C-alpha cells in the first residue's frame, strides 16, 4: 500500500455524533472527501444540510436527529447503519455541551447535563459501536477530548471533569480492545471557534487572556482538527492505541 493510500477512507462507513456543527461537521465532510460514507447525528440541528453537503462530495449519507443520551436512539442508529451497510468502521464522538459558571454557584442540573452528554453518552456510543467492531475485528474510535482533559479551566468544572473522563475512558477501552484490532484514541483540541465557544471568544476580558497563551496567535477553526481526524480514522494509525492527540496551536507547551 502506498503512503498516501494509507490515509484513504474509501469504502469505510463512519458515524459522527454532533455531526451537524463545529468539529463534528468538519470531520464528517473531511472523511467524506477521503472516501467514507457518513452517518450524521445531530440533536439541536437537523442533519439534512450536512448530509446534502456530503452527497455533493459524491458520498452516501444517512442522517438521524435525536439524543444520544437515549440508549434506544443509539441502538436504532447502530441497527439502521448496519442494515444499510453491514459494517461500521469509524466512530467520531464529537457531541458535547459546555455550561459556564463559578463553581460555588454551579447547579447540579448543569453538572448532570454535561456529564451525561459529554461522558456517559460518549461511553454508550463506544459500547454499542464497539461490540460490532470487536465482532468484525476492526474499527477506529475517535473521541473528542479537550486541552482541559489535562488542565482545569476556569468556571467549567463539569466540562473539565467530563473531558478528563473522556481521556481516561479512551485509554481504558484501548487497553481492552486493541487486541481485537480496534483503535480507540482521542483528539484534544485547543480553543476552537465554534457555536459553543462563541461567547467566550467574544468576551473582552477572557478572550485576550486565552489568545496571549496560544503560540500560534489565533484560535483554531474546526478545519484545523480534521488532519488529526483523518490520521486516526485511517490505516495510517493502525499501531496507535490509547493516545490523546493534542491539536492546540501550542497552548499546552506554555
Notes on the protein architecture:
With 254 residues, the chain is α/β, with parallel strands linked by helices. The chain has one domain (4-247): Rossmann fold. It is built from 8 helices and 7 strands, in the order βαβαβαβαβαβαααβ. A 7-stranded parallel sheet has the order 3-2-1-4-5-6-7, with helices on both faces. It is globular, with a radius of gyration of 17 Å. The termini are far apart.
**N-C termini distance:** 39 Å
Low-pLDDT runs of 5+ residues are none
CATH superfamily: NAD(P)-binding Rossmann-like Domain
What would the principal axes of the Cα set say about the shape? Answer: globular
Order of helices and strands: EHEHEHEHEHEHHHE
Question: Largest sheet, described in full?
Answer: 7 strands, parallel
Q: Numbering strands along the chain, what is their spatial order in the largest sheet?
A: 3-2-1-4-5-6-7
Mean pLDDT: 96
CATH topology: Rossmann fold
Helix share bin:
40-55%
Strand content: 5-15%
Number of domains: 1
Derived from helix and strand composition plus strand pairing, the structural class reads alpha/beta
The CATH architecture can be given as 3-Layer(aba) Sandwich
CATH class designation: Alpha Beta
Q: What's the Cα radius of gyration? A: 17 Å
Count of distinct strands: 7
Our count of helices gives 8
Give a quick summary of the entry.
With 254 residues, the protein is α/β, with parallel strands linked by helices. It is 42% helix and 15% strand.
Highlighted features:
254 residues, alpha/beta, Rossmann fold, 7-stranded parallel beta sheet, 7 strands
